[in-house]
Amino acid sequence: MSVPFVDLKTQFRNLRDEIMPRILRVMEDATFILGPDVGAFEERFAGYVGTRHCVGVESGTAALQLALEALGIGDGDEVILPANTYIASAIAVSATGASPVLVDCDDAYLMDASKLDAAVTPRTKAIMPVHLYGQAVPMEPVLRCARRHGLRVVEDACQAHGARDAGRAAGSFGDAGVFSFYPGKNLGAYGDGGAVLTDDPELAERVRLLRDFGQRRKYEHSIKAGSCRLDSIQAAVLDVKLAHLDRWNDARRRNARHYDAKLAAIGIEPPRRLTDDGHVYHLYVIEVERRSAVQQFLSECGIATGIHYPIPIHLQQAYADLGLGAGSFPVTERAAHRILSLPMYPELREEQIDHVVGAIERSQRLVPA
After folding, report:
1. Which of 272, 279, 278, 286 is nearest to 353 (CA)?
2. Strand ranges in the chain using DSSP code E only, listed in sequence order
3. pLDDT above 90 coverage of the chain, percent
4. Are the C-beta atoms of 151 and 157 separated by less than 8 Å?
5. For the chain, what is the radius of gyration of the CA atoms?
């Protein structure tokens, strides 16, 4: 049995009759850039998350950068973020001229809020919690720290479409919430895409200027800015998919429960879930011994897996200038050596989960120590 890591082909086949007319309408109307589909999606996604404003941009990384720039963060400033995240979170900070300051994660792989106060310096301007793998960071401790030190909060919700903390959607707590619509995300486009969400109308307007050459009207430029726009075809696709997102997230949670029970039965600890219904399982991540051998064994069984993420930011050559060596963030580093992401998507069938877990069980017996 073959089990892909994600199955976007099946998703498209299921949605083809909804999506193709929307794409064709954009083509026929030739409204390719900032057309009505962009505005329609922005309005609906803001309503879904529970914010007043949504500004569509070209990618999640661009959304992070523009949100920070719109908050006035730049050269000489510092932004605190977790060591356990995709490098794009740090790259967006660096792109503004600011410096990323890392803190370790907890046993749910999320930013450890107990370490925030010690990371604050006179140069700190913002905290960037990352809602990782589909699970929301508990936001109240983060917000309390931000209030104590007068800091901005930019939520990286690029893996957390529909995730919730204390009944509120990820991306709705901070000064800004940022999403990616990369194709494999819970809400994914057919190319790159991203968005900045906020309740602050001035912040939203600043992001709109930054995404479109600083212009409110064509050829009238208020600030120096580049082009980071969400195109209309991607917005049309996202608008169709948004209506299915809750159902898809429910399916992901159902699949996670199957994994939880079946893995526990063979002695593998399921990932820690902070709430019963807040996790949307963009990724289903476990820890295993002899990971490379286990991953190879699963591949030979027709099962695709991933590693998110094998080299922490502070050990990447790109961030050697941070001067942080091995041992700086022990929880993150331990996870980086052990984590393995299993197939997870709404269309995943229970018999495929059985095949994955059965292969993991066999790997524990057959893979040499």
Report:
1. 286
2. 53-57, 78-82, 99-103, 124-127, 152-156, 164-165, 168-169, 176-180, 194-198, 215-217, 220-221, 284-287, 339-342
3. 98
4. no
5. 21
CATH number for region 8-242? 3.40.640.10
pLDDT, residue 205, reads: 98
Query: 0.85 cut: is pTM over it?
Result: yes
The rounded distance, in Å, linking the Cα atoms of 257 and 268 is: 14
Nearest partner of 42 among 63, 27, 13, judged by Cα:
63
Write the single-letter amino acid at 237: V
Task: Give the CA distances from residue 327 to residues 86, 214, 307, 333, 337, in Å, rounded to whole numbers and listed in that order.
Answer: 19, 44, 20, 7, 13
Q: Which residue has the tokens 């309740």?
A: 199
Amino acid at site 318: A
Answer yes or no: is pLDDT of 367 > 70. no
CA distance 196 to 158: 10
Question: Is 162:346 a contact under the CB 8 Å cutoff?
Answer: no
Tokens of residue 9, six digits: 């082909």
CA 330 to chain centre: 23
Whether the bond into 309 is cis, omega within 30 of 0 = yes
- The domain spans of the chain are 8-242, 245-366
Angle formed by the axes of helices 87-95 and 60-70, to 10°?
40
Task: Please give the CATH architecture assigned to the domain spanning 245-366.
Answer: Alpha-Beta Complex (3.90)
Q: In sequence order, what are the residues at sequence separation of 6 or more whose Cβ sits closer than 8 angstroms to the Cβ of residue 320?
A: none
Residue 47 phi, psi dihedral angles, 5° rounding: -65, -40
pLDDT of residue 270: 96
Contact 297, 367 (CB under 8 A): yes
Q: How far is CA 233 from CA 35, 61, 227, in A?
A: 9, 20, 17
Among the listed residues 266, 254, 251, 270, the one whose alpha carbon sits nearest the alpha carbon of residue 342: 270
Residue with tokens 């962009």: 38
Q: What is the H or E stretch that residue 27 is in?
A: helix 8-29
Segments in 96-132 forming alpha helices (H)? 116-119
* Nearest residue to 185 (alpha-carbon basis) of 177, 176, 198, 194: 194
Rounded Cα distance, 94 and 116, in Å: 19
Q: How far apart are the first and last CA of the chain?
A: 26
